[in-house]
Amino acid sequence: MGARPRWGRRLRRLVHDEAAGGVVLLVAAVAALVWANSPAAAGYEALWHLRLTVGPGPVSVTEDLRHWVNDGLMALFFFVVGLEVKRELVVGELRDRRAAALPALAALGGVVLPAVLFLAVVGGGPEARGWGVPLATDIAFAVGVLALLGSRVPAGVKLFLLSVAIVDDIIAVGVIAVAYTDALEPGWLLAAAGGLIAVAVMRRSGVGPVAAYVPVGVFVWYATLHSGLHATIAGVVLGLMTPARPVGGRAVLDDLQRRLHPITAFAVVPLFALANAGVDLRGGAVGEAVGSPVAWGVVLGLLVGKVVGIGGATWLALRLRVGVLPAGVPPRLVWGVAALAGIGFTVSLFITDLAYTDPALVTQAKVGIFTASAVAAALGSALLLASTRRDRRARAAPGGPGGPGDGADRRA
Questions:
Q1: Which residues pair with 61 in a beta bridge?
Q2: Digit-coded pLDDT (tens) for 178-207
Q3: DSSP letter string over 333-354?
Q4: Which of 80, 233, 294, 309 is deepest in the core (most CB within 10 A)?
């Protein structure tokens, strides 16, 4: 009895934070677009190309501001993702195989089909490197849209969307690690592994203060940055190594998540959007995107791929009795959730910059992301509202559940 109320409180808190963070993220993205297409556009590019050196002498790192955001601050975002994944796998909704089976299969369908559609549209060549762009769901935006729909959508819908998106994140991180890795440097890989071993030894030795782990975590990030793997992978792995159960009576993971999630939701991710969503749409860029296989591959992947992939995989899993939907979620609402999962923004933009170096391809992919995300938000909202209105009419109709003439009414 106690676990469910705690989960309910946590779900409400998470939805509130994600919804509010989604608003800030939207404001940052719009600000970036306006700035990049204004008379001050040169200042936008100049700002993010400023080079900054951090660290002393031979161990210093010099990057432009955009890379510090993408490689540095986003490692904190992926650390929080790792915390969330660890929590769900150990003590959350994904710990139960039957409960985890459905969102896992749904997410898998929502990853495979978008990639297949993207490659079918784009074909081969350098453009094909972007097959990972339409894979990811932006949790903040998707949950933000659900929050705007309010109580008209059952709480179980939010739970299902979060579960699918978390599995989606796991797959996206794997794709980044495997498909978008440069030539590996074995020495630095061993150094990063050594840092992770040090973290494990510290845990086993009972080292409690989080501050003691920070220098080791920074070293793991530094070694990963030089190893050829993307530096954000260090954040995910460190998050997964965080104990999900209380240590010495202290809920370390929950404490970290409570402290860091607002920072990533209201500062890191909006700053990432400000640095990466500023696409210059002047000079025929939109027209080029309209005729671009990359843009269409992203749009079809995020819209058709997510809807058919998630909705179809869920339908098949339910028919085969592989998993169950959360309580109060009729199967027809899954299609609205699948459409909202087509809101790909943060991780989609992130993978775009890993996949392409050609500015024209980057612009085309980002136009596809913006277009698909806007349509997915509208489509998902419309599908969910239409289904919930149908349910309300059925309950209010004579003989309907809860309506006049319903069996429960007669028994009363």
A1: 54
A2: 888 877 899 999 999 999 999 999 998 888
A3: GHHHHHHHTT---HHHHHHHHH
A4: 294
